[in-house]
Amino acid sequence: MDVDSQKVEKLRNGIIPIYEPGLENIVAENSKLDNLHFTDDADEAVAFADIIFIAVGTPPDEDGSADLKYVLAVARDVGRRMEVRKTVITKSTVPVGTSDKVKAAIVEELTTRNKDLIIDVASNPEFLKEGAAVNDFMKPDRIVVGTDSDHVRKQMTELYAPFNRNSDRMIFMDIRAAELTKYAANAMLATKISFMNEIAILAEELGADVEQVRHGIGSDPRIGYQFIYPGIGYGGSCFPKDVQALQRTGGEHGLPMRILDAVEQVNAKQKLHLVNRVNQHYQGDIKGKTFALWGLSFKPKTDDMREAPSRQIMEALWEAGAKVQAYDPEAMEEVERIYGQHPGLLLTGTRDAALTGADALIICTEWQHFRAANFDALAETLSDKVIFDGRNMYEPSRVEAAGLTYYAIGRGE
Ligand code: UGA
C-alpha cells in the first residue's frame, strides 16, 4: 500500500520506480503467482493483513532528528481501520521509543467499539544495502525483532522461516534494544569508513600506500576487510541521516556523541578532498577546464543520488568556473531531475563519450564497468593527462606507465 497512486499503478504494471538489481524479477514472479498485490486503498490494505509493516521514510528534520510524521500517520491510518487483532511492525529506521509512540497513535484512533483490541507492536529493523537489497534480504546475516509479545515472536518466527533455514538467524530482544541496534550498526559502519578516510589522508602525507595498510589491518579478523575502503566519503539515504539522528538522540539525553561528531566532520571534509587535489594540481585555476566525471550515484548498482559525494564535487567545480561531462550507468535520469539543464553539465550516453574534449577525468563511483580502462587511450584523449580517482580503482604504476598523472585516495601523489 502506498499513498502515491502513480507509483502503485506503475508497480501493478511491473514497472519498478527505482533501480535495484533483481527486484523486477521478484515483483513480476510474485505478481504472477498472485502473492503480491499493490494498492493505494488503506481500507483494503488494513482489512487484508494480519501483519502490517510500516516502511515509510524517516527523513531528517531541520535539526537532524528523524521526522516521524509519516510513520505516525500510517499508525493512525491503521488504528482507525482496525477491527480485529493485528500486529504492527516498524521496519522504518526510527529513534528509540518510537514503537511506544506507534502503539499510542494506534490506540488513540481506535473506534469506541474496538477499544479493547490487543495491539501488538514490534520493531524489525532492516539491514539491507542498496544495490544488494534482494540478496541481503533473502540471505540475511541476522533478523532482529524487538518485541515483548509471545504472539509476535511466534508470528515472526513463522514469517521468516523461509529465510532462516540453515542456521537460526533470528535475534529476539526488547523493542528499545532493536531500535538502537539499527542505529548502532549504521553508526559503527560509518565510523569504520571515516576512520579509514582519516588514515588515508595521513598516509598521503606520510608517503605510505593506504591500500597496503588496508590489506594489512583487514587481515585481522577483529577488524575485517569490510567497510574499510577509503574513498570520497559515505553518502546515501542511511549513514548521513542515521549518524545525525543518533547524535541528536545522545544530545537530547545530555550525552554528546563525540565519536559520531568526529565521524561526521571527517566525512564532510572527505567529500571535498578530491576537489582540493584538483585545485592543488591546477594551482587553484580551473576556470574553463572540462572534467569528465565517471559515476554519479552514491555507490555502484543504484541510481540513488541522495547525499552522493559526486554532487558536492560537481557543484564545487561549477563554482570555480569548470564544466563537467558526466556518465553513470544508472543515475542519469535522477541527475537530470536534480540539476535540469545546468549550463555546466553535459550528460553523455557512454563512459567514453564523457572523455571527448575533456582535460581531466574524475572518478566518483566504482562501477565495475570503469575497472577495465584503457590507459593508453585515456592518455591520448585527456588533454591534461590526469586522473583523479576517488575510489582507488587502479594500480598507480599501471596508470602512470601510460604517461598519466594519477591521484587516488591515500596513495601518495
Ligand atoms: C547502509 C548499510 O550498509 C545497510 O546495512 C543498512 O541497512 C542501510 O544503510 C540502511 O540503513 O538502510 P547503504 O546506504 O545502501 O546501506 O550503502 P552502503 O553499502 O552501506 O554504503 C554507504 C556509503 O558508504 C556509500 O557512499 C559507500 O561508497 C561508502 N563506503 C562503504 C565507503 O566509502 N567505504 C566502504 O568501505 C564502504
UniProtKB/TrEMBL annotation:
Pfam families, sorted: UDPG_MGDP_dh (PF00984), UDPG_MGDP_dh_C (PF03720), UDPG_MGDP_dh_N (PF03721)
Gene Ontology annotations of biological process type: polysaccharide biosynthetic process
Domain UDP-glucose/GDP-mannose dehydrogenase C-terminal: 292-396
GO MF, any single term: NAD binding
Keywords, in A-Z order: NAD, Oxidoreductase
InterPro entries referenced in this protein's UniProt entry, alphabetically: 6-PGluconate_DH-like_C_sf, NAD(P)-bd_dom_sf, UDP-Glc/GDP-Man, UDP-Glc/GDP-Man_DH_C, UDP-Glc/GDP-Man_DH_C_sf, UDP-Glc/GDP-Man_DH_dimer, UDP-Glc/GDP-Man_DH_N, UDPglc_DH_bac
Residues bound to substrate: 127-130, 182, 227-231, 235, 299
Enzyme Commission code: 1.1.1.22
Pathway: Nucleotide-sugar biosynthesis; UDP-alpha-D-glucuronate biosynthesis; UDP-alpha-D-glucuronate from UDP-alpha-D-glucose: step 1/1
UniProt-listed SUPFAM superfamilies: 6-phosphogluconate dehydrogenase C-terminal domain-like, NAD(P)-binding Rossmann-fold domains, UDP-glucose/GDP-mannose dehydrogenase C-terminal domain
Reactions catalysed according to its record: UDP-alpha-D-glucose + 2 NAD(+) + H2O = UDP-alpha-D-glucuronate + 2 NADH + 3 H(+)
Binding site for NAD(+): 2, 7, 58, 93, 130, 241, 306
Catalytic residues (UniProt): 238 (nucleophile)
PANTHER family, per the entry: UDP-GLUCOSE 6-DEHYDROGENASE TUAD
Recorded family membership: Belongs to the UDP-glucose/GDP-mannose dehydrogenase family.
Name by which UniProt lists this protein: UDP-glucose 6-dehydrogenase
Native species: Pseudohongiella nitratireducens
Lineage summary: Bacteria, Pseudomonadati, Pseudomonadota, Gammaproteobacteria, Pseudomonadales
